[in-house]
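dumping this here so i dont lose it
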């Protein structure tokens, strides 16, 4: 007995074909959106590449671009089939392609599911890449004269301004590195010389942050130098006063940005899988309803449509038996190919 059978007349078949045509073209629009999101995600990763030590993975955006293109092509084909389905002459040329088309759609849904899973699972890799990349970016901030790092200062400053963050974990990360180049230090100055000599590694360390850490919304002029020295500023206590620099680390800010994007894309892909499943189910009903018409020359006659020709259990049983038969035939072929030992 067929699984989920439905009776169709001409009016129901027309409504189903029209509804499917609209859903298929809606799926084409979703495919364009997925393709555009893949391009956008790829561009954003390229823009933040230096913040990730050039180790970012483009697997997810590449898959998004691929599934977006496939969604456009497959759903445009499905829309054309639905458009021609009520014309027996036009539908006849599509009929032999429908079974392979539905199998391709099943594979496409599996690819969509893989892409959605990667959107959620790859976030941990993004977090680790950001942690290492930002650590190195802060270290190389001062190297404006070093080839390959000339724009690191500009990139990091723009990132801190755009994402309202400071440092890797927080603003104190700047206290642990020398972020001012030696060419801008007056080594004849005793204070500078003492600070450099007092450090084991010969670095000029200070409790200061770059200007890009400053919060423009603060009513007080930005205090970016001597942040932990209360006596250096009037009416100031760094332990209890809200600092007028960004306190959130850039790793947290950037990870939130990328994870929000990936979560949104993952949810959209899951919605696309549901939409594609509706398309497949509707097309299966439509094709079976057209194939089982009592009198194909009389469009007014009734017909039966279904999702599966047999029940779920019987369908899976037939599938397993076909797989077993295929496996046995492969073993037989391999056995025939073995060379016979001479007597």
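and the seq i came up w/
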């Amino acid at each position: 007995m067929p699984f989920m059978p439905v009776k169709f007349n001409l009016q129901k078949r027309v409504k189903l074909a029209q509804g499917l045509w609209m859903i298929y073209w809606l799926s084409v629009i979703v495919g364009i959106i997925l393709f555009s999101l893949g391009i956008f995600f790829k561009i954003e990763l390229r823009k933040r590449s230096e913040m990730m030590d050039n180790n970012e993975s483009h697997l997810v955006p590449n898959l998004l671009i691929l599934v977006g293109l496939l969604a456009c092509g497959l759903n445009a084909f499905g829309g054309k089939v639905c458009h021609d389905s009520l014309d027996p002459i036009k539908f006849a040329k599509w009929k032999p392609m429908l079974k392979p088309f539905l199998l391709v759609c099943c594979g496409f849904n599996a690819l969509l599911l893989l892409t959605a899973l990667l959107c959620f699972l790859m976030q941990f890799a993004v977090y680790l890449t950001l942690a290492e990349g930002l650590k190195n970016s802060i270290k190389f901030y001062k190297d404006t004269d070093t080839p390959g790092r000339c724009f690191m200062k500009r990139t990091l400053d723009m990132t801190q301004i755009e994402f309202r963050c400071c440092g890797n974990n927080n603003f104190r990360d700047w206290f642990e590195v020398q972020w001012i180049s030696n060419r801008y230090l007056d080594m004849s100055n005793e204070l500078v010389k003492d600070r450099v000599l007092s450090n084991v590694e010969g670095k000029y360390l200070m409790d200061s942050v770059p200007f890009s850490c400053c919060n423009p919304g603060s009513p007080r002029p930005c205090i970016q130098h001597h942040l932990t020295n209360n006596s250096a500023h009037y009416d100031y206590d760094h332990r209890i006063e809200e600092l007028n620099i960004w306190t959130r680390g850039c790793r947290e800010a950037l990870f939130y940005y990328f994870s929000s994007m990936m979560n949104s894309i993952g949810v959209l892909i899951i919605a696309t899988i549901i939409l594609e499943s509706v398309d497949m189910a509707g097309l299966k009903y439509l094709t079976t309803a057209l194939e089982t018409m009592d009198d194909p020359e009389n469009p007014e006659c009734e017909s039966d449509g279904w999702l599966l020709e047999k029940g779920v259990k019987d369908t899976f049983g037939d599938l397993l038996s076909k797989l077993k038969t295929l496996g046995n035939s492969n073993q037989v072929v391999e056995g025939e190919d073995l060379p016979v030992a001479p007597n």
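Strands lie at 6-8, 303-305.
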